[in-house]
Amino acid sequence: MGMHKFSRRRFLQISAATFGAAAAASRIPSNWAWASGTADARGVVTIPTFCEMCFWRCGGIGYVRDGKLWKFEGNPKDPLSHGRLCPRGTGAVGAHNDPDRLRAPLIRTGARGKEQWKTATYDEALSVIAAKLGDIKAQHGPESLAVFNHGYGQRFFQHVLKSWGAINFAGPSFAQCRGPRDIGFSLTYGAGVGAPEPTDIANTDCLVLIGSHLGENMHNTQVQEFAQAIERRIPIIVVDPRFSVAASKAKYWLPIKPGTDIALLLAWMNVLVTEDRYDREFVAKYGMGFDRFEAEIAQYTPEWAAKLTDIDAATIRATAREFSARRPATLIHPGRRVNWYGDDTQRSRAIALLTALLGSWGRKGGYYLSVNTRVAPYPLPAYPKRQRPLADNPDGSRYPFADEPVTTGLRDATLTGKPYPIKGWFVYSTNLLYALPNREETLKAIGTLDLLVVVDTMPSEIAGYADVVLPEAMFLERYDELLAGWGRRGWVSLRQPVVPPPHGLLPGWKIAKDLAGKLGIGECMPFDDIKDYLRHRVEKSNLSWDTLEREGVIVGEATPIVVEDGLELSFDTPSGKVEFWSKQLADHGFDPVPKFTPPAAAPDGHFRLITGRAPMHTFSRTQNNPLLHDLMKTNEVWVNADTAARLGFANGQYVKLKNQDGVVSNRVRVKATQRIRPDTVYMVYGFGHTSRKQTLAFERGADAAQLLTKYQTDPLMGGTSLHSNFVTLVKEA
Ligand SMILES: Nc1nc2c(c(=O)[nH]1)N[C@H]1C(S)=C(S)[C@@H](COP(=O)(O)OP(=O)(O)OC[C@H]3O[C@@H](n4cnc5c(=O)[nH]c(N)nc54)[C@H](O)[C@@H]3O)O[C@H]1N2
Ligand SMILES: Nc1nc2c(c(=O)[nH]1)N[C@H]1C(S)=C(S)[C@@H](COP(=O)(O)OP(=O)(O)OC[C@H]3O[C@@H](n4cnc5c(=O)[nH]c(N)nc54)[C@H](O)[C@@H]3O)O[C@H]1N2
Ligand code: SF4
Ligand SMILES: [Mo]
Question: Which of 53, 361, 436, 605 is the most exposed place for a label (fewest CB within 10 A)?
Fold first, then answer.
């Protein structure tokens, strides 16, 4: 995107995993029981596929009994699930059975957002879309369609719309999630962390979680390794304003003042450098600009940080000594959702630098370097040449270090009409009204559109505003693109239908293919059945289709992923080194070594609102799932017990939250607890649904996203802060 010399390579690729069909086949036991489509003695059919209840993509096995989906369990062959799913994965059965699912395409008849529709056939709905897209293209050009997409099914829609000429594609996984982290690491090592994170929790001797709340954040493989780490009794250090589940397993809980992590990280680095506890060999061999870094870091004493963070200097020293004593097998976890305060790229860069001081990059018990997988492509026609700049970041100067498009940048372009008008939104599997901060802006932008298409499985809030809703079969009912996995080894997973979709619902690939036909570009989907497409790719890669269908996953060979195994480190930064002092940041007017700026203080009587996850729900997508709803029906607002007492709120009492801009939430129960700082309140995000068609989730709990009217944009890459709003607690009338 930009003109800067900055790596676009997201994952350090040490070798393309090689798959020999013979080698892979030789590892498969001959008595394999899960032949897809064949029933066992009890009449139970088992079919492997991979999960879409979140984006971790665990391999699972669907069980069908008497023609009905019975259960979904982990696939023991799968490198992510190791045979076990998290509660949300198991709950996929509820997503299949949810009576509130979308059943037919809808065409809007009332005003936007009024949820008035007529049902239509896919053919009718796609005709309406194709006609509107034709108008948009004729009047404004194909660049005027913005595509918001997320999740694994996005691939064929992306392909068809790119073939049609669309160029603006963005997902919340960048600016609203892991983007700042990956850019912070890229600026330091020349490679982002990527997902799944290459954190060697399995082998670490000391785990530092700074904000990352594993155990509530249920990313399966990490949680399994975390459980083992607890059993191994390694020291765990948790930095969180809230006593998280992880904190309850920790040797140290540091209840940091929200927004001051950079100060703590700088002080930790100060201790390592001034007490000579860092990895001199790593720094000498791979480091660039260490002298300038060292000179700058000298001022950040634990005493300096104590005043800012509310963590006393002795604890800062003790924890630094604790984790540096175990280097390089110390893991400072990079977190995942890091869009908190608008300075998040620098916060992540500080984590990357601390990791470098510990020498735990590319090391056992620290970060390993993921192995990539290559699968042969299917021959498809080339996309039309791009005629205009990307709308979110036209010349790369708006977000100089962004290496993916920024959702909120596309929203801005829609609102301003600059650099050119955006007249259509095509939304696939992302509930933009919950995922982006400042809902008013999203609604205002939607108000300017000629066309809003939403592809979803549920009557989500964003679907409520669509002109045309295209329902999709859920993941247990469809094929999708192959998964080329990366991690300790490379692997390939197959998503395949376990049960047929109800109500004649179509899978995404088929909807995309039919849309291509209507748009007159049918040649971009030159296969009748997606199985032909998938099989071609698999066989071209010298893999066995039969094996993949039967086992769901084929795992590549082991190659070195840490220095201890013989891995040679290299760095794709401008200097080819680990950049302790970043010239590219200095050249762009940013701090070459992270600096701490205090976050805005709370207005009088207000509390900072922070959010996170609950183990049994994913974002805003599972609250109506009957099985997961049973496990957790609503959220609560965590309030420090003393604060609650001072304000006269009893535990369990209903309150409403009112933010600094006067936005008032739905009612929610107070959880009065010592497990949170007095200046902060906490809620699980994703509740408080406003879509009436989600009958179980409707108005259950409070919606944290609604209260995020204020946000800062990270000047390096466009990440939007989600922890910069303040609330008061209001008694229910
Ligand atoms: N306030 C606030 N905002 C946040 C976050 C936060 O913690 N707080 N978290 C951020 C993060 S980390 C992320 S990754 C994003 C997540 O953002 P999103 O991915 O947008 O998350 P959801 O809100 O779950 O919206 C997913 C939508 O996809 C639909 N869906 C589910 N499965 C399928 C499918 O198979 N096919 C189709 N077509 N649709 C499907 C669901 O019904 C739902 O409407 O949100 C970000 N935004
Ligand atoms: N069950 C479940 N698991 C999930 C998901 C889900 O929806 N449900 N979503 C997945 C996705 S896409 C993502 S991105 C991850 C997100 O999960 P993580 O990356 O682990 O966490 P966050 O949601 O960013 O952070 C939440 C934690 O940060 C703490 N915190 C808030 N402010 C501060 C601060 O200033 N300093 C510090 N040190 N801590 C702070 C909060 O109290 C909370 O414990 O979860 C993944 N796993
Ligand atoms: S972590 Fe849970 S929800 Fe996510 S893919 Fe794995 S089993 Fe599914
Ligand atoms: Mo995320």
Answer: 605
